[in-house]
Structure formats: C-alpha cells, structure tokens
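G., before I forget:
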Amino acid sequence: MLTIAGIAAQLTELMLAVLLAPLFTGWVNMCRAWMQNKSAPPLLTPYRVLLKLFNKEPVLAQNASPLFRITPYIIFGCMCLAAAIVPTLDINLPFNAAADAIALVGLFALARVFMSLAAMDIGTAFGTLGARREMMIGFLAEPALLMVLFTASLISGSTSLSSIVGQLGRMELMIYPSLAFAGVAFTMVSLAENARIPVDNPATHLELTMIHEAMLLEYSGRHLALMEWAASLKLFAYSCIGIALFVPFGIADGGNWLGILISLPVLAVKLAAGGFLLALIESVSAKMRIFRAPEFLGTAFLLAVLAMLIHFLLES
Amino acid sequence: MAFEGLQLPMLPLHGASPAWHARVETAQLPQVCRAVRDQGGRLTALWGADNRDQAGGFSLHLILANGDGALWLTCRLDARNPAYPDLSQWFSSADRQQRAIHDLLGIQVEHSTAFVDRRPWLSHGAWSGSEFPLRRDASLENTSPPGTDNYAFVPVEGEGVHEIPVGPVHAGIIEPGHFRFSVVGEKVLRLEERLGYTHKGIAKRFSALTLKEGARLAGRISGDSTVAYAWAYAMAVEAMTGTTPPPRALWLRALYLERERIANHLGDLGALGNDGGLAFGLAQFMRLKEDVLRLNARVAGHRYLMDAIVPGGVMRDIDRAALDQLAAQCDALEPEVRTLREIYDDHAGLQDRFMTCGILTAATARRLGVVGFAARASGEAMDARRSPGLAPYDLLDVRVSTARSGDVAGRVAVRFGEVFESLRLIRAIVERIAPGRECMELPVPPAGAPGLGWIEGWRGEIFVALEAGENGRIRQAHAHDPSWQNWPALEHAVIGNIVPDFPVINKSFNLSYSGQDL
C-alpha cells in the first residue's frame, strides 16, 4: 500500500543505506587495523577514496564494449535496490510488495552476471580468472543463501522480507535452533559473497589470488568508484539482512517517525557490533586455498538445510 | 683437499675461505666439469670477460664450489670466434648465465648434439643482436634504435590449456619480472620466468671504478643483501692484496651479516603470513623488523647497514654500550618471535596454505644446484658459514637449520630456525668480540691480481670475483647472486600447484631480480 509515510520511510532507508555503506566499510577496516595492532585509517577514508575516484578521469581499454561501461551503473543500481528492499529501519516498505527474499537473491545474481561479463569483456587474463572464480563461488553461495532465507520463510510463513522480519521481531525471546544453524550458514555465505577472508582478500595486491578485485582491475575513475561503492552497499545490505533475520528487535513497525528515530540508533549499534565481528573473523583466519571454498560453502549449504530440518522436527 | 684428481695446476688464492685458481683450455672443460659434478660439486658463478685489449682474447670464468672450497677456473677463448662447450649438460644452473654471457659479450656456446637454449636473457631488444655492451670496444652511447622483442615462450598444448601472463609490472611494489603460466583450470602445468628487466650495467660500471669506490657499488647491487655483497667484495679486495683485516672488524662484519639475515627473515615471515591472508602476522613481524632496522640506524648509521663494511674492515667501531643494546634487543626479540612461531604453527588455516605447497624435492634441488635456505629446506645441509667456514664463524659453531619437506612450510621452518640461530650468534659475538682496531689501510694490489669473496648471505651464497687493474683500479668484477640458481627452482616448485598459491610459494623463496640482472 502506497502511503506518503511509506514512501518517505522507503526513501529515508535507501538514502541512509547509500550514504552510510562506505562508513560501515570504514568501520570494518578500522576494527581490522586495531586488531592487527596497527593505527587505524580514519573512519571517513572510504568517502575520500570515492571522492578521489569520482574526480579522476576514467580510462577505458580500446576494445571495451558498451557493456563494460554500463556495468558499474547496473551493479550500483542492483545494490541500491537490494539495500532498499531489506527492512532496516521500518518493516512497512512499499518496495516489499514487489520484491521478496527470492528477488533479493536474484538481484545479487544479476549483479554477479554483469560483473563477470564485464570482467571478461576486455579479455585480460586476470579479469577472466576473477570471473571464473566468482562464478564458482556464486553458484555455491546462492543455494545456501536461498536455504537460509527459506528457513526464515518457513518460520514466518512468507517469503516477503517485511513479513519475515515482522514475524521474527514479534516472536518471544527464546532460542530457535533452526535460526542458530541458519545464522552460522548465513555468516559463511556472507563472507564468501562479500569477498572477505577466508574466501577472498579485499586488501590483497596479489593479482593471482584475487577473486572480486581481479574483476575490478580494468576499472578506473567514476566506474571504479561506483564498483567500490556497490561493494560497500552489498556488504551493508548483507549485514542488514543478517540483522533483520537474526536480531530483528527494535525495528519500527508501520512507518511512524518516532519508531524510525528509535530504530536508527539501534541499527547503528547492531551494525557496529556486526562490523566488529566481521573484522574479528577476518583477523583470526587465513585465506583458504581456493579449492577449499566449495567445502566451505558446501558446509554452509548443509547447515542451512539442517536449519530447515530442525525447524520441521523441533519447532513446527 | 678439495677438488682432488682434476690434474690441474691449481694455485691457492689468499683469502678467508679456501679457494684455488686454475687456467683451463676449452677442451678440458667437459672433463673437469664432469669430475667436479661427480664429486658432488656445483657450478655457482659463470661469467665472461673481454681481454682483447691485452691480446688475451675473451675469457670464460667459472666458479665451482663444494663444502671444502671454491675453484675459480679461467678459460681462454678465441678473440674472433669465442665459443665454449655447453656447460648446462653438467650443471643446469649454467643455462641462463650462458645466455646472459652471450647477450653481453657475444660469446657463444658451441654447437652440440644436445639442445642448447639460445634465446636472449638480458637483452630485451634495448640493444641490437650485433652489439655486445660488455665488450671493451662497445660504445656506451647506444645509438641504435631499440630492436623488437619477440621472446619465444615455450608453448604448452592440450585441451583447455591457456596462458596467464603476469608482469613485468605488478600490482604491488615489487621488482619487475615476467611470469608466464600455462594452466588448465587453476592448475599450473608450467611456469616460465623471464627476467632481466633490471639490467643496469653493473659489470661495466665496476671497470670504471677504483677498488675503494667499488665497495659502495657492491653494496648497492641488491639492497636486501647489502652486507653480504659488501663483505664479499671486501673479502675479494683483501684477498688480492694478501691482507687479513683486524679481528674486531671480522666480528663486526659477522654481527652485521646476522642482523641482515634476521631483518630479512622477519620481513619475509610477515609477508608470508600476509600472502596467506593473515595480515596480523605481517603487522607483528614488520614491527619487529622495524625495531631491528632502527637499532641498525642508531648503531651503524644506516637502517640496512649500507656501507657499514669497507675493504680493510668496517666503517666505524661500535662501543660497548651499543653492543649491549644489540644483545638486549636479541633478548627482547627472541620471546616475541617464539610466540609468533607458535601462532603460525598452531594456525590451521595458515598451515593448510603452507604445507605441501610448492614442494622442491631434494633431488630437484641438487640437480638445479639450489643454494641457501631454499636448499636447506629441501634437506641439503649446506651453509658457507660452516663449510668451508670462515673467520669468525669458525669460532662460533654455527648450527645449520634444515627441513626435509621442501614445501613452503619447510622454508618457513628453516627461516624461523635461522632467526633463532642468528640471535644466538649475535649474543655470542657481543660476548666474545675482540678488542683492537676496526679497520686497516690496504696496499695497492699488483695489476692482474685475482681476489674471490664468498659469503653466505641470507638468501644463499654470494660470490664476488675481482681482478685488479693498474693503480688500484678494478679491471674486472663479477658479482654472483644465489638467485641465479634458485629462480629455476621456483619454476619447478610451482608445477602442479594452483595459480593462487604462486604468490606464497614465490614469497617463500623471495629471490632477487636486481641481484642477478646486474
């Protein structure tokens, strides 16, 4: 149902996601640096990087096709939409009627397809290498992600993200074994999907080991800025999905502004804790050999399936 | 005595390590090489020289080494048609050096029935195929336009095989080198290296310097091994002048060499953790390395100890207070490195990356003539500090660290072992260092006098061979980096591994580009 308040809430949420996503990346980087006993880069560094990149002239390979040029916009658009349909502040969002959990996974898949095509477009060895690996990770991660979302859908009886979050948020505080399994599976999938250690290393300079970064090597200027921004948005969106599914408490219900005012600091605290946890996982793990990734994501899938089974066995 | 039964008139050379010099004819080379190889010797350095200005034609120089000493062979070649038999039949490490000699001097390998690789090595088309920059009549003003550079990489064929070219410009701040991977999926079928991008004419530059000035240049051949190069150079100058530096100077040189070893191993251990995705390791090891470098700067005036060693001794003495600081730093470093080693050893993810990754078997290592810690990690207990040994290491009873596995984990273990041993050595040196002068004046050597320096640097053994010119000038100089022998080992260690494991394998060797491109 389209209401002024609903549209306002939707726009607020989208703007917040777009504007705050780099801040979240900055926070994760800060935590990582602290955990390595290093002095951390300023929190606002990702914004400075984006500003720098937007001010630079993009350099294109001579054989770059239009696909290569439009991909950054498509990916940025996909990630904006993904961030918009994840309920973060309010569960009464107009976009929710159009997009549910399956559409969300589809959006990520769409972005991945374009990203891989663009990476192969120039024809360099690294782009193709990255695209190939990304597809391998993707086809293993997507089913696991779907299973996690289905577990939540089973509990709430709907694939609409708003209904799921609303339902989970109203449940009484107790331990749901199915959600515990799904939570672990979701964490593993998020690490793989967002190119984090132990699957990929966002900070590496070694071309031969890259997955996500290898696909960005040919981008520069505003194209690279959009790609980096989209990566931040993806991480932000994933964190918000995690929060919405597993710690949904404190989210506003029904587009009232007071509720959003309360849910905003709650979200900030949850994101800060989530970012810290991500940095912790990344700091204590090494990157695994690339052929361990199927085992890793296979485990995630298995846990997600177990979560569904446990729901049927114990909770229904 | 070493090198028995060669039936060569061997002239013992003065110097800290046992070394001999002999002149051979090209016809004798096959027999000598075969005999030395069969006795377990290895070819270390191979280079050429132009003596046509002294009516000597060209000459080919070989250094053959084993645990007892080094044999420097000089082989006179014809001025008009210089050629010699293919040495790679007996020593595979000769291959690239032969190609470099051809690029610089136009000295050819004779036609043979076996395959001889005649592709260029140092020449990347910057000079034409008929110009030879190290010849004495070569013009230094290079007027010819750069030629084309069509390097024929060895193709690998088969279904699904493709090539990944990497470099020479890399994403990180590292030296330039090109790596051509032939892969199927992620599996490496073959790696071919192409180096020589940092060729800068060091040999030519040496011959324009005095022996004194040459020390500074020697210390700048490879920045991470500046102490080892400077010591090897100083040793060669002292050998040709028939002098022995004061004992205190030798103690201080060993002190510097061990500090260089510690700094490099710490840096690489951190980088290995980082390449395995454990950035924590990099941060911690770099902190420790930085402590070492800062104390170097305070004590010896340079973070990497550049120019700390000069022919005749060391640049400046270290007083007792500074020596105690050095010992105190060893005491502080040891528990920290021990803790980090435990973290590395107990980290399942990191060990999964290191173990069985990049295996260099003992047989391959021996066949390729691999030296240094890479050889020790494949079970070859060679260390020039111990055998043949030199002052002051003969008083210190150096313990050689070895591993059998030959994988990245083995090289990491050897590096840890060497850090602990170097810390022990530094403490022993601080305790036992002799009083006295730190430097002496060297006489001017007679023209034509040879001198050989042989030092076990952190990467492996470094040789500097010098021939004196008139009035204390350098007539010829050749500096040999262990990377010559160890780069081909990397090609072998990578086979069968997956592409993303290459950086960690490469870092576990951490070979020098500049040191061998000269």
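Residues 232 and 453 of chain B are 4 Å apart (CA to CA). The mean pLDDT of chain B is 90.

More on Monday.
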